[in-house]
Amino acid sequence: MKVLVTFAVEPEFAPWRKLRKFRYIDYDGLRLWRTNIEGTEITVLVTGVGTESSAQAMGLMMKMADENQHFDVCISSGLAGALQETLVPGDIVAPQVIIAENKHADLQSDQLTVDPDLRRQAIEGGAICADCLFTTDQVLLKASLKRACSSRAQSVDMESFEIVKEALAWGARSVVVRAISDSAKEDLPINFNRTFSQNHRVSVARVILELAKNPLALPGLLRFARQSRQAAEGLAKFLDAYVQKLVSEGHPSRSRPAVAS
Length: 261
Fold this sequence. Notes:
Elements: E1 2-7, H1 10-19, E2 23-27, E3 30-37, E4 40-46, H2 51-67, E5 73-82, E6 92-100, E7 111-113, H3 116-124, E8 128-135, H4 143-149, E9 155-157, H5 160-170, E10 173-182, H6 204-213, H7 218-248
Parallel strand pairs: 1-4, 1-5, 5-10, 6-8, 8-9
Antiparallel strand pairs: 2-3, 3-4, 5-9, 6-7, 6-10
């Protein structure tokens, strides 16, 4: 069995690297790490932030898979924001449906469903049973924007729809497991939409520039950084146990692309 786990940025993945030894792989510009658990190959892909970056990275992964062997399981992981007040920072969610903000010409629906067995195993491992996750092109900065989207989903990210879409096209079983970094009722301290570099990473220089525009945002930025770090650490422990359970339960069969009804 081959398992692919994705993160948007390296700090989301860093706590897992402290728990388990991964080796770095250079493949056509992709940021990949790999480890083996009881003979099962686990590959981690850092996609970059956003739908465009994740789609490009997953397209290259499809090429790599065609040359070597398709992945059997794909886990879209990392951090997400809460849209409903029932979720708090540090919670780990396993949504059933992924909703896209933008329509896709190659799909009949803007919704995708994850593999029910993989999701069930995540919930049994302690993840919160969530109905929907909303994938958008922009960071939702204000609590008012989160409230406006709360009728559509419980949480929000910027990558999962594209990741699940491509994985389903391979015939891989897919699941989304995300840790909540910010609550539905809090504004983000700075405009993170202005902090991404051309290669879709968070630029420290641009963060500093945004902070220089509003020095009073520093306490909020430090609080958000602490919440994000703690959420990533909890996610790493969850993922390590979750992947080990997948391995121990054997080789999954492939699925076919599916959309929510």
